[in-house]
From TrEMBL, chain A:
UniProt keyword Oxidoreductase present: yes
Swiss-Prot/TrEMBL keywords: Dioxygenase, Oxidoreductase
Alphabetized InterPro entries for the sequence: Intradiol_dOase_C, Intradiol_dOase_core, Intradiol_RC_Dioxygenase, Protocat_dOase_a
Species assigned in the record: Murinocardiopsis flavida
Pfam families with a match to the protein in the record: Dioxygenase_C
Protein name: Protocatechuate 3,4-dioxygenase alpha subunit
Intradiol ring-cleavage dioxygenases domain span: 28-174
Family statement drawn from the similarity comment of this UniProt entry: Belongs to the intradiol ring-cleavage dioxygenase family.
Gene Ontology MF: a single term: protocatechuate 3,4-dioxygenase activity
Keyword Oxidoreductase: yes
Top-rank taxon: Bacteria
UniProtKB/TrEMBL annotation, chain B:
Classification via SUPFAM superfamilies: Aromatic compound dioxygenase
Protein name in the entry: Protocatechuate 3,4-dioxygenase beta subunit
InterPro entries named among the record's database cross-references: Intradiol_dOase_C, Intradiol_dOase_core, Intradiol_RC_Dioxygenase, PCDO_beta_N, Protocat_dOase_b
Transmembrane segments annotated in the record for this chain: none
Annotated segments matching region Disordered: 1-35
A GO molecular function held by the record: protocatechuate 3,4-dioxygenase activity
Database matches in Pfam families: Dioxygenase_C (PF00775), PCDO_beta_N (PF12391)
4Fe-4S listed as a keyword: no
Length: 183, 249
């Protein structure tokens, strides 16, 4: 069997090849919202050469993908994927709709978005998950969040409500370090 | 925003996951690559079981790919300077299956080693006929093909007299979030490998060699372009019939 190809950094010139694609949902989609945030390094400095990618279910918790055993389902005007490089201030923003609950092996997972972060200085991506502040009951039953026993660590996965959607900052290292996953 | 109570009841559902392959990859904390110092998490990563969100991923269609997106030598009015090359190969998973209809993106420096990017300003000319970005979809057999020019090596400031070996950046989506990979393809016998921390960060020499394309005389086109072949292997399913070898983990 072939062996997997090793990862390498995106380097400082990532913008040439990884074009922004910030709309996971069409502009004007019902319930459309912005997720905005800043990516910080271990010194608390914004990272201007990172790129954030998001992947998520549609508002009914379905995926337009053959690996969904319930059947791939297209949701008009919705792609589920977005990508945005950080700007000079380390800020990114993606436009989407809120995902629905997604089934897990022992019951529903709370609505969540899988987030990949790539950057100069990172030899491979890191992965985190975004959850929503209003879903307290669903989050309490979520299998991924339940496995994180430290409240402060768990809170790093929580977006905050904002005027036009949510805010989700990512701290790669240091105080308030975001929880990252071995995916 | 309100609690999402109107979603359909989510009955328990287990999906097959992907095999973990940590040993193949460089660590996030690698002091010889100085920029990793403030950009690696210090807490251990937490295990994320593969569930629906992880085993699915974006599907890209031909509508998002232009006819000349795979040919970096035909994106401007004239042809770029440098050695014209064909870079081709297959995208496979670690179970040996082709990964069809998946997005492959590339970006690279020009023949002199200069990127068309605002922060690249070392004294090497830009080429008015070279942007250095391409994209394509793999075909039904997982094959991809780009036409470009051989990129030059370029200096950086990581260590004394630091030069990156010539490389092409590759971005792959595979078919699932779990398979996402960004990497770099190198050329055979580059004398700059030994001083390159990105190359050296890969713990296993055999794994490093998997980033090196092979000169492909069979695919080289007479009077036109040299060919290099490079297969890319993404993570495969957890349960394959041939799982005896455990040293990828
Ligand atoms: Fe590069």
């Amino acid at each position: 069997m072939p062996r997997t190809t090793p990862s390498q950094t995106v380097g400082p010139f990532l913008h040439i090849g990884l074009a922004d694609d910030p709309y996971a949902a069409d502009e004007g989609a019902p319930g459309g919202l912005w997720i905005r945030g800043t990516v910080y390094d271990g010194a608390g400095a914004p990272m201007p050469d990172a790129i954030v990618e998001t992947w998520q279910a549609d508002p009914d918790g379905r995926f337009d993908h053959p690996a969904d055993p319930r059947g791939a389902r297209t949701s008009p005007g919705f792609r589920g994927f977005a990508r945005c490089a950080t700007d000079a201030d380390g800020a990114y923003s993606v436009f989407t709709r809120k995902p629905g609950a997604v089934p897990g092996p022992a019951g529903p997972q709370a609505p969540h978005i899988d987030v990949s972060l790539f950057a100069r200085g990172m030899l491979r991506r890191v992965v985190t998950r975004l959850y929503f502040p209003e879903d307290a009951a669903a989050r309490a039953a979520d299998p991924v969040l339940s496995a994180i026993t430290d409240d402060r660590e768990r809170d790093t996965l929580l977006a905050r409500a904002a005027d036009d959607g949510y805010r989700f900052d990512i701290r790669v290292q240091g105080p308030g370090e975001t929880v990252f996953f071995d995916v | 925003m309100t609690e999402n109570t109107d979603a359909p009841a989510a009955a328990p559902l287990t999906v097959p996951g992907f095999r973990r392959d940590h040993a193949a990859h460089p660590p996030l904390d690698y002091p010889p690559y100085r920029s990793t110092a403030l950009r690696h998490p210090t807490r251990p990563l937490k295990l994320l079981p593969h569930m629906l969100t992880e085993v699915t991923g974006p599907v890209f269609g031909h509508d998002r790919i232009g006819d000349l997106d795979h040919d970096l030598t035909r994106q401007r009015s004239g042809e770029p300077q440098g050695q014209r090359i064909i870079v081709h190969g297959r995208v496979l998973d670690a179970g040996g299956r082709p990964v069809p209809h998946s997005l492959v993106e590339v970006w690279q420096a020009n023949a002199g080693g200069r990127y068309r990017h605002v922060i690249d300003n070392w004294p090497c000319p830009l080429d008015p006929n070279f942007d250095g970005a391409g994209r394509t979809l793999t075909d039904a057999d997982g094959r991809y093909r780009f036409v470009t020019v051989r990129p030059g090596a370029y200096p950086w400031r990581n260590h004394d007299n630091a030069w990156r070996p010539a490389h092409i950046h590759f971005s792959l989506f595979g078919t699932s979030f779990t398979q996402r990979l960004v990497t770099q393809m190198y050329f055979p016998d580059d004398p700059l490998f030994g001083q390159d921390p990105m190359w050296n960060a890969i713990p296993d020499e055999a794994a490093r060699q998997r980033l090196v394309a092979r000169y492909d005389h069979g695919a080289t086109e007479p009077q036109w372009a040299l060919a290099f072949a490079w297969d890319i292997v993404l993570r495969g399913p957890e349960t394959t019939p041939f799982e005896q070898e455990a040293d990828d983990d």
